[in-house]
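Hi again,

Forgot to attach this to my earlier email, sorry! This is the prediction with adenosine-5'-diphosphate bound. I've pasted everything inline since the attachment limit keeps bouncing my files.
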Amino acid sequence: MSFSSCYIGRFRRTFAQIHSTIAGRLNRQISDCQKPVHRKCTWMNTQARLLSSRTQHSYRRKLVRNGEKKQLVICIEGNIASGKTTCLEHFSKTSDIEVMTEPVSKWRNVQGHNPLGLMYQDPSRWGLTLQTYVQLTMLDRHLSTITAPVRMMERSIYSAKYIFVENLYRSGKMPDVDFAVLSEWFEWIIRNIHIPVDLIVYLQTTPQICYERLKERCREEEKMIPMEYLEAVHQLYEDWLINKTSFKVPAPVLVIPADHDLPKMIRQYEENKEKILLGRNA
Ligand SMILES: Nc1ncnc2c1ncn2[C@@H]1O[C@H](COP(=O)(O)OP(=O)(O)O)[C@@H](O)[C@H]1O
Ligand SMILES: Nc1ccn([C@H]2C[C@H](O)[C@@H](COP(=O)(O)O)O2)c(=O)n1
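Structure tokens for the complex follow:
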């Protein structure tokens, strides 16, 4: 087999795996969000109908998650090492809440490769690789079937793009072409797939506190993260969720100050529990 046919064969297999992962999570139904349409059709038919609906009508139809019902989806957002996983651990003890951490273990090991580690070693070369995989795995998380009345998940496909891809690009570590490809993927996803988020809980920290917690956690890949990186991520989060000057915010935001020690954080989580369970920020 020639090098090129072997390469094309591998590309086709990889594409088929990604396609089946996403397609498997979808209901193969189309909905126009306001008026759900309960018609079964194949993936290909769905695409055809999406295309025709777009040319004939002004409203947009989107693919929906398997068995999508009225469960609440709460995304926990915050800087690296701000305490998101610790927050989820606390709420995992509450009945009626399903918690879902970020798929970091996948980002550290995809078929024996470590795109997270590679990205920190050489962001210009591997930023696209990591962020493409983050986008896929986060989409997979968003589309997975919810098994409790409330889902709390760590971060979202939105912060992956608005914070981390944006940071790589703005800091000059992601080439224009990589940013353009990732942006088109992202825009396609949010235009065509319904990704409901009911509330964003923003754990607001100072970069200095995150730096201390990062050092304490001591994840191998993150040893070279400088303070400036956490400051840049912090600023992007503030502009998105507090100042609301950068990107569209997909849900109301509940801000929890998160520089405090663990006992105080737990008190704050308990004080905010009702709001969170109702998906409200006030
Ligand atoms: N309120 C807190 N005070 C002190 N240390 C904390 C607090 N919350 C979390 N940590 C510690 O900080 C590190 C990062 O927390 P983690 O929950 O993993 O953050 P994230 O998931 O946001 O990256 C961990 O070692 C954790 O034990
Ligand atoms: N889109 C993303 C999301 C996360 N990361 C990095 C940042 C951390 O090193 C790690 C996990 O984040 P944490 O849960 O500890 O805040 O993954 C990234 O580079 N891109």
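The longest strand covers residues 72-78. Confidence is low (pLDDT under 50) at residues 1-16, 28-59.

That should be everything now.

G.
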